[in-house]
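quick q for whoever's on today - can somebody do inverse folding on this one?? i tried earlier but teh output was garbage lol. tokens:
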């Protein structure tokens, strides 16, 4: 399989989404950054154009397209420097419902997720628990036809806007080992006992609302359990391959964006009587970044093909997640340095991109966690 996402129907779709970004997102993004949120209206518009959950089956309101189309959306958002959380919703959260949900659950939630009427979030991280999911403390106790949930989640993207949240919770706190007691539950926005805490002020990604979620005797119907009780950890592990691939695509696209405008800047900015790009050190630095970006692109396309064919590539995706996100941060550092003092000014895109890219080697599993997974896959 030789995947080329710039030809045929892929190109038509890519061009349509780029037009959507030019008309509906880019002109307003700076304002959203200042306001700290993306308006719900843009989600509705994206849904109307088929840019949310394009892989969802037609019977549930989607287009039944392949993951390739999601990859195009993710890439173009990053290349535009607009981090609207469509990929989180479409390719990280909603697949839990599609894969593990009952027919009734899919009929209830998937059409709204595809149309933009429902915005989804996933809640795993807690104030005292990040990468060690087995140590979560949020508990769900079965009481008749309901589960009663108590706990707090933090760093939840789409946390303020979300209409439904897929949460990881303990349904068997005494399980040994602990991960065998984890279940996934869908909590809807009007569930009694569910509230939003602080909207967190972050270093970057200012337009993306990130929040604390609080569950105090939160009652949800037992029918909101996703899949089987106490199988949640397994479900999370099964979906992390795609989540980390999505993050790698985002980081790759942002690295390409930063290099592209930095090359142009260096060609037009003069120092000591000649363009910045004509000084040998700077020329070599740009060449080094271009080489690393090409390596990242080649590796990513290889993994994307394998993922579409449903191959298990946990080791390779973990490699990509840490290497590409670290590479994007190196690119950020050197691109800002090549901008000089202007790189520290908000009017230049490298300033915002440098803030935004820093989270990429933290969320969805830190670089250190990714290396641990690679080591485990190597039998170390």
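ok took a stab at it. sequence:
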């Amino acid at each position: 399989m030789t995947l080329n996402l710039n030809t045929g129907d892929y190109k038509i779709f890519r061009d349509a989404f780029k037009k959507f970004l030019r008309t509906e997102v880019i002109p307003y993004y700076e304002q959203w950054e200042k306001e700290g949120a993306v308006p719900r209206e843009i989600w509705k518009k994206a849904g109307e154009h088929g840019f949310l959950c394009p892989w969802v089956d037609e019977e549930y309101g989607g287009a039944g397209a392949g993951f390739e189309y999601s990859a195009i959306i993710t890439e173009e958002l990053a290349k535009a420097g607009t981090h609207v959380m469509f990929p989180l919703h479409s390719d990280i959260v909603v697949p839990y419902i599609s894969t593990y949900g009952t027919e009734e659950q899919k009929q209830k939630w998937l059409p709204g997720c595809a149309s933009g009427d429902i915005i989804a979030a996933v809640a795993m991280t807690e104030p005292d628990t990040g990468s060690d999911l087995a140590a979560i403390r949020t508990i769900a106790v079965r009481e008749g036809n309901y589960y009663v949930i108590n706990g707090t989640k933090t760093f939840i993207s789409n946390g303020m806007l979300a209409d439904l949240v897929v949460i990881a919770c303990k349904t068997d706190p005494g399980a040994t080992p602990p991960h065998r007691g984890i279940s996934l539950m869908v909590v809807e926005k009007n569930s009694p006992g569910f509230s939003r805490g602080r909207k967190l002020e972050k270093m970057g990604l200012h337009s993306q609302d990130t929040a604390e979620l609080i569950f105090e005797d939160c009652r949800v119907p037992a029918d909101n359990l996703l899949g089987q009780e106490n199988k949640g950890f397994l479900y999370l592990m099964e979906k992390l391959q795609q989540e980390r691939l999505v993050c790698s695509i985002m980081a790759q696209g942002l690295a390409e964006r930063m290099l592209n405008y930095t090359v142009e800047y260096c060609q037009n900015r003069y120092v000591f009587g000649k363009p910045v790009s004509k000084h040998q050190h700077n020329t070599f630095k740009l060449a080094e970044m271009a080489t690393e970006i090409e390596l990242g692109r080649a590796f990513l396309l290889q993994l994307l093909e394998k993922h579409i064919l449903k191959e298990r590539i946990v080791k390779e995706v973990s490699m990509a997640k840490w290497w590409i996100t670290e590479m994007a941060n190196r690119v950020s550092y050197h691109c800002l340095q090549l901008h000089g003092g202007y790189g520290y000014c908000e009017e230049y895109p490298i300033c915002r991109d440098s803030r935004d890219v820093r989270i990429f080697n933290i969320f969805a599993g830190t670089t250190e966690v990714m290396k641990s997974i690679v080591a485990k896959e190597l039998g170390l």
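fwiw The domain at 121-230 is CATH 2.40.110.10 (Butyryl-CoA Dehydrogenase, subunit A; domain 2). also The chain has ten helices and ten strands. so keep that in mind when u check it
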